[in-house]
Specification:
Layout: H1 20-29, E1 66-68, E2 71-72, E3 81-85, E4 91-95, E5 98-100, E6 103-108, E7 116-120, E8 127-130
Antiparallel strand pairs: 1-7, 2-3, 3-4, 5-6, 7-8
Length: 135
């Protein structure tokens, strides 16, 4: 199971007390969703949930923006690695721990050093990458 990346200073969700009547209604609402739940009521087209926070692969260079994770697979087929950067600016490869069945498309960062922020350089098509520590 892949764990979500947690940053220092993130607020924990507040728990609220529920009554017995509320619990019954909640359990009914949380029952198994049907395929119609993710469809637009007017067109019937499939709609992605708004709170989908998965990491996705970039198909084109124009898809690269904001936080990203650079994943590398060795030629020998060993465990995949993520490009990482420490506080001094040293760049190194760190093994990925949050991965499902060795599939690199399911990889998620387990350390903030594996997260990079991409920005386009003004007036060009070039990208700038900054690590978690701003270097």
């Amino acid at each position: 199971m892949v764990k979500a990346l947690v940053f220092k200073g993130d607020k924990k969700p507040k728990k609220r007390k529920r009554t017995a009547d509320n619990d019954d209604k909640t359990n009914q609402a949380l029952s198994a969703p049907t395929s119609a739940d993710n469809r637009d009521s007017y067109t019937g087209d499939h709609v992605e949930p708004e709170n989908d926070d998965r990491w996705v692969s970039a198909d084109q260079p124009s898809d690269i923006s904001g936080p990203l994770m650079v994943v590398m697979q060795s030629a020998a087929g060993d465990k995949p690695y993520a490009l990482s950067c420490d506080a001094t600016g040293k760049v190194f490869a760190l093994p990925i721990e949050n991965i499902v069945d060795g599939n690199v498309s399911s990889a998620e960062p387990h350390d903030v050093r594996q997260v990079w922020v991409a920005n386009k350089a003004p007036g060009t098509e070039n990208l700038r990458f900054k690590g978690a520590h701003g270097k």
